[in-house]
Design a protein that fits this description.
Structural class: alpha+beta
Distance between the termini: 17 Å
Shape: globular
Mean pLDDT: 96
Largest sheet: 4 strands, antiparallel
Length: about 100
């Protein structure tokens, strides 16, 4: 699946629409927490190293870029920007933690 829209939805959520017709809203804090980069997930064990309570409640994406035909990269207001969310992971986060519209 490929995202067709990614944009703010209110003050604390992002809207992500998919080419299959699904649309989800997702809290910025959850999306930031789910970052798959090596600073947030231990590369050897796959365990998340960032704590949910470490994600600031006012975190917001400052920039959103599609990387090739496979991922989305967010630059966050907390200065974090190394994580690329492969489309399949981003969709899984939407399904598990988002609100389907």
């Amino acid at each position: 699946m490929t995202p067709t829209q990614i944009h703010p939805h209110g003050e604390r959520e992002i809207l992500i629409a998919w080419d299959c017709g699904e649309r989800f809203t997702l809290p910025y804090t959850e999306l930031r927490y789910q970052c798959p980069c090596a600073a947030c997930v231990d590369e050897a064990t796959g365990h998340r190293t960032i704590r949910r309570e470490a994600v600031r409640s006012d975190v917001r994406p400052k920039d959103v870029r599609v990387v090739g035909r496979y991922a989305v990269q967010f630059t966050w207001s907390d200065g974090h920007g190394t994580g690329m969310y492969p489309f399949d992971l981003l969709h899984a986060v939407c399904v598990s933690s988002g609100h389907k519209l």
